[in-house]
Design a protein that fits this description.
It is a single chain. By secondary structure, the chain is α+β, with helices and mostly antiparallel strands. Among the domains are: 8-110, Winged helix-like DNA-binding domain superfamily/Winged helix DNA-binding domain (Arc Repressor Mutant, subunit A); 180-275, no CATH class. The chain contains 14 helices and 7 strands. It has helices at 37-49, 55-62, 68-86, 90-93, 112-120, 126-135, 150-176, 183-192, 197-209, 213-229, 236-239, 243-246, 257-271, 279-284, and strands at 15-17, 23-26, 29-31, 53-54, 94-96, 100-103, 110-111. The strands form 2 sheets. It has a 4-stranded mixed beta sheet. Strands 4-6-5 form a 3-stranded antiparallel beta sheet. A hairpin with a 2-residue loop joins strand 2 and strand 3. It is elongated, with a radius of gyration of 22 Å. The relative contact order is 0.10.
Length: 290
């Protein structure tokens, strides 16, 4: 990261984003690339725990196939690379001792995870949904994958799924209480959660009812193709939407927006990788519900 201006810490552009791809913006400088993935993994793990983590635990987490001595050596190198990436910010945000490492989040940084948390606790209305989808640009650090680090990957995937399901449940509550939702918000939901059937169904139905049959048909076909590529079958309720353009007077009684959600929630949730976890487990992750 390049040197930042002296007043960068009071700049409205100091932003840390984890949803979608990682990005740290300080003034005119943007950090989104690291020497290697485990440097980013170290930063993400420290950031989301917000407490000192034992060096031995970090070494075992990120280098599980190596002995403790080699793991600690690799950890020192990763920490060195992280300091280089953060530049002058490193002294302000990294708290390092012989036994532990911690990340101290500056109050001046706008953190998308904190903003998302506040929105999820706010009113369930269209305006909030729009702001929510501006913050939730994709899964938590979606580009980060460490399949060789089993425990780290399990922790990250669980955290991703918990946030994903929170956003889905919040969005559904808004869709169920509003007969019409702006098309661009439905398009955003379909984009963020491409494997979740109820959002596709709601978008196709709304486009068709607005008389945009060509757009509805295109969206309908795109979702069927997506399912075919993943070896899945559409819900019967979704297939019946074709009657909008195949029949002159479609009889879709019982396929209201709320009905569609209630019938397709469970199978669609499995398609998008929902995991079941106890409320105690959910609360155990930093920022999960706090």
């Amino acid at each position: 990261m390049q040197d930042a201006p002296q007043d960068v810490h009071n700049n409205e552009w100091d932003q840390l984003a984890l949803f979608g791809q990682f990005s740290l913006t300080l003034g005119d400088d943007v950090l989104n690339q690291f020497s290697y993935d485990k440097v980013k993994a170290l930063l993400v793990y420290l950031l989301l725990h917000q407490q000192p983590i034992n060096r031995a635990s970090l070494a075992e987490l990120l280098w599980p196939d190596q002995g403790l001595s080699s793991g600690r050596t690799n950890l020192r190198h990763a920490l060195h690379c992280l300091r280089q990436s953060l530049g002058e910010e490193a002294e302000r945000v990294l708290v390092v001792s012989r036994q532990t490492i911690a990340f101290r989040l500056p109050e001046s940084w706008h953190f998308d995870l904190h903003e998302l948390q506040r929105l999820l606790e706010g009113p369930k209305d269209i305006a909030t949904l729009e702001r929510l989808l501006q913050r939730y640009r994709g899964d938590l650090v979606e580009e980060l994958q460490l399949p060789s680090c089993t425990e780290f990957q399990r922790w990250l995937v669980q955290l991703r799924n918990e946030w994903r399901q929170r956003v889905i449940r919040f969005s559904e509550a808004i869709l169920e209480s509003n007969d019409e939702v702006p098309d661009h918000l439905l398009q955003a939901l379909v984009s963020r959660f491409s494997g979740y059937g109820p959002f596709h169904e709601r978008l196709v139905r709304q486009l068709a009812e607005q008389g945009q049959l060509a757009a509805a048909h295109e969206q309908y076909s795109a979702y069927l193709q997506l399912l075919a590529l993943s070896g899945q079958q559409p819900e019967p309720g979704f297939l019946q939407l074709a009657r909008y353009w195949s029949d002159g007077n479609p009889d879709l009684q019982g396929l209201s927006s709320q009905g569609a959600f209630s019938r397709t929630w469970r199978p669609a949730a499995r398609r998008c990788g929902r995991t079941r976890s106890s409320s105690a487990s959910f609360r155990s992750w930093p920022f999960a519900c706090a």
